[in-house]
């Protein structure tokens, strides 16, 4: 974990240096950078995915449509423009159940459903994670703090430019009667990646 933090810090410094150079050369402006950041803070991110998950938890018919035709189901909801645009083409959801746990990975690069999960975390892009998640997903999940029982099947979905997967996590016990807003507040990006379960705050 410490090694990953070091890599992420190093990568962040390189990105900052590249950004400064592009601004200095007049290729982009600081306003352009601010607009991109604002877009992913307010319009595209895991808060969208959390709303989708919450609706699926309370509306079985919507859940069925979401799993059958994810883009069409998402289009039913009120979201900003661009949900089906860059990095949102051909999104597909898979549901965790008591018998199956799903994990998403991109073995080739870092394809990711940005509109519903936001920007991919460093570990998702890490070559070591990408290789090990395919070979030994149960062990990788345990290192994330998620111990999946041997009786539960672990399925790994290789996301790509052709299809971008995300996970519909299981609804935790103790949330009966909660509103969609309350449910959305406990859904995490990690749970929609399959790297964690949704838990009710103590």
TrEMBL record:
Gene3D superfamilies: Nitrile hydratase alpha /Thiocyanate hydrolase gamma. The keyword Lyase applies. It comes from the Bacteria. GO terms for molecular function: nitrile hydratase activity. Residues 10-196 form the Nitrile hydratase alpha/Thiocyanate hydrolase gamma domain. This is nitrile hydratase. Its EC number is 4.2.1.84. It holds the Pfam family NHase_alpha. It is an enzyme of class 4 (lyase). Belongs to the nitrile hydratase subunit alpha family. Keywords: Lyase, Metal-binding. It catalyses: an aliphatic primary amide = an aliphatic nitrile + H2O. Signal peptide: none annotated.
């Amino acid at each position: 974990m410490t090694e990953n933090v070091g890599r992420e810090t190093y990568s962040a410094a390189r990105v900052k240096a590249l950004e400064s150079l592009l601004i200095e050369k007049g290729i982009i402006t600081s306003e352009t950078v601010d607009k991109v950041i604002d877009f992913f803070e307010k319009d595209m991110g895991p808060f969208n995915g959390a709303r989708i998950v919450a609706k699926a938890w309370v509306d079985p018919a919507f859940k069925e449509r979401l799993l059958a035709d994810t883009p069409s189901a998402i289009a039913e909801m009120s979201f900003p423009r661009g949900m089906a645009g860059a990095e949102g083409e051909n999104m597909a959801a898979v549901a965790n159940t008591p018998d199956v746990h799903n994990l998403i990975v991109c073995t080739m690069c870092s394809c990711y459903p940005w509109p519903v999960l936001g920007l991919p975390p460093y570990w998702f892009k890490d070559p070591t994670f990408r290789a090990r998640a395919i070979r030994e997903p149960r062990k990788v999940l345990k290192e994330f703090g998620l111990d999946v029982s041997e009786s539960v099947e672990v399925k790994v979905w290789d996301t790509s430019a052709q299809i971008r997967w995300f996970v519909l996590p299981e609804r935790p016990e103790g949330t009966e009667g909660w509103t969609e807003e309350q449910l959305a507040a406990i859904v995490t990006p990690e749970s929609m990646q399959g790297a964690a379960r949704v838990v009710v705050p103590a």
